[in-house]
Amino acid sequence: MKYLHLIWAALLRRKARTVFTILSVLTAFLLFGLLDTVRTAFNNVGGNVSGADRLVTVSKISFTMALPMSLNTRIQAVPGVAAVSYANWFGGQYQDGRDFFPSQAVAKNFFDLYPEWQMPAAQRKAFRDTRTGAVVGENLAKRMGWKIGDKIPLQATIFPQKGGSNTWVFDLVGIYHVSNPEQRGNENNFWFNYDYFDEARQFGQGSVGRYAIKLTDPKQATAVEQAIDALSADSDHETKTETEQAFTAALVGQFADIGLIVGSIMGAVFFTLVLLTGNTMAQAVRERIPELAVLKTIGFSRRSVLTLVLAEAVLLLAIGASIGLFLAGIAAAAVQTQIGTQLVLPPVGATEWLRGLALAAVIGIIVGFLPARRGMRLRIVDALSGR
Amino acid sequence: MRSELRTLVEIRNLSKVYSRGQQKLEVLHHIDLDIGASDFVALMGPSGSGKTTLLNLIGGLDSPTDGTIAVGGEHIERLGEDALAKWRAANVGFVFQFYNLLPMLTARRNVELPLLLTRLSAAERRRKAAIALELVSLTERAEHKPSELSGGQQQRVAIARAIVSDPQLLVCDEPTGDLDRQSAAEVLTLMQDLNRDHGKTIVMVTHDPKAAEFAHRTLHLDKGTLVDSPEQSAA
Question: Which residue in A303, A327, B55, B126 has the fewest CB atoms around it within 10 Å?
């Protein structure tokens, strides 16, 4: 600590250069904080579902392939299965389709498998009793300005009605709330009665997109998965059963490898940052060679000079990284306000801070090493005489 | 009277050769020299005569090619780079022609620099720096940065930095070379006081005969060899 004023003085020697370098570092770490948050949010899409006791069964070939309804009773009979429900992707568009939300047809008992979605009992009953009934999450209802009793028309993109019409009209009978903020993305869904859908659609009757299975004991998940998939083994509709977390994570992974994208962007950003701050540090040390020579003259050891320059580089990076991560926290909150709960961005927390500061320290050591070694190795008599 | 002084610096058969590619340049040639404790020696000679090289070797900033240098009984030619750094911190104060203060630090912080290498507390470092600045009559300027001081004041700060850790030996390379006549006289008087009142041994390289007059004795170097008189040096 007694050298801190020396390090600080070195940084303040060229204030404009230091400020611009810190701005570069800050920008890189702002981006790091934000992208890391996005990556975590996508990872959490799978991890934050509370379905440790729920399985999902889809076609082994592709989750877009339909499965026969006859499987429903057979799955129900598998030991360890407490309840079975099913759903079918609808993919409807509301109005001009710009404000997309997922829409699915689900069995009447579907919400029984999701007790964490809070909905008044009367509304649950209304969904069971209303052929054209639909239920939406609270966030979606707010976003669209819907209330109970509204008639909501959706345009089919896959399933026209038997008469050829693409317009499906639903009665909003329930709005549910998800109290866990990390799962609030589930409030963006539109669910409607499968029976109405199956009767009215032009094709595909008697099939479902996926089964949702509630386990009696989560510890039996693997055995139940195998037992369910064995039901369709060697048939034309072989299934793949996995936990809801694994299914959701795989689903997200099909859209894009967020980790790879984030990693690639950050790799490019930090590579540029290393070049930029490396050049700055090299220049800063080159200008201060006589001063470093003076320090060595009065008795600073080689190691002390090395440490001073490295500490200067690390401090420069740490300052920029700290401001960047702080701003990333603010920016993430602002972005969250804009995107609502479609994707729940976790706050820039202790993990991101630790990871960011560790990264700053590593970059600081990388960019500071060569200039520090130059300072350490300088010959006093040459440096003092300007050679 | 000076010959009665205890020998502080004992140089024997000292040579320094610089290599420039294939070329060898012998800057110092078999020098023998004794400098007593509390002596004040001026080193004079034409450019390239080896004055600064000899001063650097005495101060432990460079290593000889041949010969020995004992300072206070310590054979510094045998010390490695880090040991030499430690030795310098404890035994030598340096004053340069262009002051070589750190521009971002105040006078006090500059003076404190050698004390950072000690185990002294911050308060103790501050106290010692204040005493050193008082010795050079710059107490009022303690919180000023070098750019806010005149050349003479900067050199006095450099002298305060050189003496703050109380070394026995001060090596000064053209300490008045960048100063006007009046500031030079002030700096030289200060050095004389440090020698007379505080017993500091001073070895000073200078081109200025008037500056050399402040020393007890003047040594003349020419082509890497000590000569008896300036006439010999000029010849």
Answer: A303
How many CB pairs below 8 Å do chains A and B form together?
A: 65
Residue A170, pLDDT > 50, answer: yes
What percentage of residues in chain A have a pLDDT greater than 70? Answer: 94
**Bridge partners, residue A104, by sequence:** A89, A191
- The answer to whether residue A6 neighbours chain B at the CB level (below 8 Å) is yes
Give per-residue pLDDT as tens, B56-105: 999 999 999 999 999 999 999 999 999 999 999 999 999 999 899 999 99
Q: Which helix (H) or strand (E) holds B19?
A: strand B7-20
Task: Give all strands of the β-sheet with B66-71 in edge-to-edge order.
Answer: B23-36, B7-20, B66-71, B74-75
| Domain extent at residue A147 | 61-237
Q: Please identify which residue in the block is written with the tokens 């706050």.
A: A347
My answer on whether A230 and A276 are in the same domain is no
By three-state DSSP, how is residue A214 classified?
strand
Please tell me whether residues A264 and A219 are part of one structural domain: no
Q: The tokens of A30 are what?
A: 């702002």
| CA B39 centroid distance within chain | 13
* Residue B200 contacts A where some CB pair is shorter than 8 Å: no
Q: Are residues A214 and A291 in the same domain?
A: no
Quick check: is A30 in a domain? yes
**How much is the ipTM here?**
0.91
Residue A202 is assigned to a structural domain of this protein? yes
Which tens digit of pLDDT belongs to each residue from A249-265? Answer: 777 666 667 778 888 88
Domain count, chain A: 2
A133: three-class secondary structure by DSSP: strand
List Cβ neighbours of B33 (8 Å cut-off, separation of 6 or more). B9, B10, B11, B14, B219, B226
Q: How far apart are CA B230 and CA A313, in angstroms?
A: 51
Question: Residue for token digits 């693409």?
Answer: A166
**A377 in contact with B at a CB cutoff of 8 Å?**
no
Last residue of one domain, picked from the residues A183, A204, A237: A237
Facing residue for A290 by CB, picked from B100, B104, B105? B100
Q: Which among B103, B105, B114 has CB closest to A298?
A: B114
B167 φ, ψ to 5°?
Answer: -75, 155
